[in-house]
Amino acid sequence: MANERLLNLKAKFSALLAGVLLMSISSGLLNPVLAHAATTVSQNTAKVSFTFDDGLTSALTQAAPTLAKYGFTGTDYTITGCVGMTTAPNTCHANNAATYMSWDQIQQLKTTYGWEIGAHTATHPYLASFDATDGQPNPLTSDQVTQELEGSKTALATNGITATDFASPYGDWTPPVLAQIAKTYASHRGFADNIDQNGDGIIDHGNTYPYNDYLLYDLQVQAGVTVAQVENYIDQTKASNQWLIITMHDIKPVASTNPDDYEYNTADLDTIAAYVKPGYISSRRQ
User: Fold this and answer.
1) Helix or strand or coil: residue 168?
2) In angstroms, rounded to a whole number, what is the distance separating the alpha carbons of residues 170 and 2?
3) Cis peptide before 89 (omega within 30 of 0)
4) Closest CA to 195 of 214, 177, 215
5) CA atoms of 96 and 87, how far apart (whole Å)
6) Measured between alpha carbons, how far is 68 from 73 in angstroms, rounded to an integer?
7) How far is CA 263 from CA 17, 213, 248, 260, in A?
8) Longest dimension (CA), the chain
9) CA–CA separation, 80 and 37 (whole Å)
10) C or N: which end of the chain has fewer Cβ atoms within 10 Å?
11) Cα end-to-end distance, the chain, whole Å
């Protein structure tokens, strides 16, 4: 699987540049109701969102029914060029050993379970940097970035889905790329932009109202992240009335123990959802 690298240097200065950058993008895009994952119930309350990357089959077969038990929906950021790769191995750049939903399955996720479908580019490239060892020897041009952003939005629209929100592959972005994203989408969730950048179990970059829709910090959850650790972040979120955005990938009954496989156990997701349930608002906008 393509390695979801932490872009640590960028993460350290991203909070600093974001406020200035957003003023240059649009002074009217800081309303959290524009981010489809944001709630319209009460803004300054604790919220938890469950987001899943890539459009993997397990979003429908494992994650959706698990969250539905507790009245929660989720957001799936879909790689449109990988839709329909229902068997493995395949040619999806993100992970050619995983399986991806068909368009009919994506519609089922949306209509049966009430999930939001966001965009995650057409082919899952690095939008700002590059990695020759991962099949991308050169950075994308500005036009190529636009093709990835608009191509995925168009593919979703062709299949009856209006995508308003976007997640960058690998969390790989720069201010110019973010400006391009803002021309097409109403929000951006990163991946390297972690809520706990010091790695000490304390949220130091939480999403506090009024939210920064183009720099939404997240919590990566895969093998190696314990349920207890996630519950600790949930407790901090509740105490500070922040918005916790959980990012997952492949959900399996028996998940890999290798963090680089980006898998997580269904039973652990169930435990987390149960822990979130009392007194929390599912923060996907209805």
Assistant:
1) coil
2) 9
3) yes
4) 215
5) 9
6) 6
7) 32, 27, 8, 8
8) 48
9) 20
10) C
11) 33
**14 by DSSP, 3-state: which?**
helix
Partners of 262 in the β-ladder:
none
DSSP string, 208-258: -SSP-TTSEEEEE-STT--HHHHHHHHHHHHHHT-EEEEEE-EEESS--S-
Confirm if 261 and 67 have CB atoms less than 8 A apart. Answer: no
**CA 5, CA 133: separation in Å to the nearest integer?**
13
Q: pTM of the predicted model, to two decimals?
A: 0.88
For 220-263, write each residue's pLDDT tens digit: 999 999 999 999 999 999 999 999 999 999 999 999 999 999 99
4 phi-psi bin (left φ>0, alpha ψ -120 to 50, beta other):
beta
Q: Which two tokens stand for residue 84?
A: 């329909």
